[in-house]
Amino acid sequence: MDVDFSKVKAYGDTLNDGSMQVSFTLPVPAGDEAREAARQLALKMGLEAPSVTEMVDLGAGFTFFVLYGKCTHTVDYAAIKIPKRQQEVLDFKQINELIKNELGRKVVVVAACTGSDAHTVGIDAIINMKGYMGEYGLERYPQMDAYNLGSQVPNEDLLAKAIELKADAVLVSQVVTQKNIHLENLTELVELAEAEGLRDRVLLICGGPRISHELAIELGYDAGFGPGTLPNHVGSYIAAELIRREKTEE
Amino acid sequence: MDKKLNLEQKKVDLARNTAAKIADHLHSWIGNYTTTTTERAAARLLGIDDVDKGDVPLANVMVDKLQQAGCLDKGLVPWLARAVAAREEPPQEIAEKLADGQLSVDEIPELPAEKWREIADSMAEEAAVKIRGTRNKREQKKQEAMPPNKPLLYVIVATGNVYEDAIQAKAAALQGADIVAVIRHTGQSLLDYVPYGPTSEGFGGTYATQENFRIVREALDEAGEETGRYIQLVNYASGLCMPEISVMGAFERLDMMLNDAMYGILFRDINMKRTFIDQHFSRMINAYAGIIINTGEDNYLTTADAYEQGHTVLASQFINEQLGLRSGLKEEQMGLGHAFEISPSMEDGLMMEIAQAQLCRELFPNSPLKYMPPTKHVTGDIFKTYLVNGMFNLVSVLTGQEIQLLGMLTEAIHTPFISDRYLSIANSQYIFNNARHLGDEIFFKEGGKIQSRAEKLLGDACDMLQEIEKIGLEAAMEQGFFADIKRSQQGGKGGSGVIEKHKDYYNPFMDIFLNGAEAGKGGQS
To answer: Which of A58, A116, A181 sits opposite B175 (nearest CB)?
Structure first.
């Protein structure tokens, strides 16, 4: 297959056919006019030969569409540079050994769901004993002291606890993203940490379904973890980064 | 309903009787205390509404002032009845004057009981009449409407703006939803007051206020009239204001309330004592108002493993049932919760889900079970999620669940879009119709995997209940028996709102609600 990586198009069944599917709702009553409106919207999105394959009357003046079209846009894949966390993923045993041998002390991790967010499923998966998908949580790591402060923790309390426990890493989870509330919360934490003079002394790490490493860096965090993250991913990063920092200081 | 699991009746009785003892132990002390929100609920029942200049609800103002004056331990009602007697003014006016400083607590003279008791009782009866009227209106509307198919389709709206919620709620009802819940702002559970008036800003949901209840109720009634159905409205009588929100729901004809005896302790770190006292009065109100409660056992399985911790759900359901009965709830009013949360990657996981769902059905034959959709193992792969939700719907119709909280294909991505809700309704309608009587035709192999799993779950639940009974529920929660979460007895939020009752404490609603709800059978088994 002869892909031009400087001009990549979406793929359906033939190279450069640009085929894709979208679904959306318009606040208009179902009918021929609605179908035409969906088609015109698709054209404006760069979808050529748009075809409404399904139109559903949702009632109350809303109509749902499933639409296929051929996207005319291309992207320059070859030019893309994404910052990446530069360490390999280790397993539970390796991480603990690494900390024991290289740092020679326990790593303190403080974690919470901050702001008004009450969804602890993410932070629980990373921290709690049980872990997730067969990977033990950080609480189980003999070389770590992990504290899960739970949900709806004010940023101030999280930092106070981090100072009290002399945390090496602060993990913050944000699940609710309505109207970008998570960005406000996350930014506030960085600002508070800077104001407390804590920023350079801890690893600030965020995670959640809408978080990427790139976004995290942009917000002033050391690392970010998105969907599919397992406890050992976070553990590997913390161990490797702390060791790297200790070595640079020497 | 056919019994398919070959359960040992002795074991079932043992579980229920042990849960009864656990509930009795709690009730050995619950009656000795009141709480600030319990007294505020009494104020609301007596018609106290609105907020002061600083947006503090007048119910809070009155309770705070009585607490400062050191007389809240006798209850709010006696003071208010004395004030009404002395000043010949209605409660709302007294509350307003108290708020703007025209009246102080000490100004109201002590009176002999015969002077105020009658006033208190007649005011309370007036509130009871109002609640009964709302209840009758619901029953009448339900009778006029087309009877819904079961499982009932339950969807959520969560825009944060009540006016947007009303539009989406109505659209969902028109698409076929039987039940609509307005998700609450995530921070409200920790507020020690109920916000006032219509609200248009909230994250993860909309504030529960009495005016918001009324707005969405009206929208759903409109949708009901258009479709000839009755659409049920749900909110959350949970957090630090359980009884007050129940009062609001009773007045505004909510049909269901999330109302768990332990949820606040475990998942919101609310003080244990406070929660156990609050849930009792809150549930009494719901019982009297004919509201169906939903319990929150499903949440255990989002923090703990669903396969390993399945028995904790059962144990909690038994405890919730026994506590509910003691607050006057009938079995038919208890939407005991459970969930479809076993990892989809598990071989034969579907059979394990069937075993748990069928077991809940057989253990609580009269309860409208609330079945929660997969969330824990859901990723952003909407296509897979849609399929897993289909499996969940299949198990539900196969095992006779009643309140089906529809899974959203965009779970783990965002609060539902209008189209997500439509697709979830279409998914469930297809499966419920296509497999409507499948359960009647299917029996499980004797001693097979499903029966064995059910037997083990029941056995483990019995063991757990017996262990809890030995140490008491409070100690069990300290040790992390539920959801792997440990809560200390003294810790948690809202503990300062617990007040030991004076020997002269009086709250006429306790008698009215408990006797009037004709407590369901089995309460003292």
So the answer is: A58
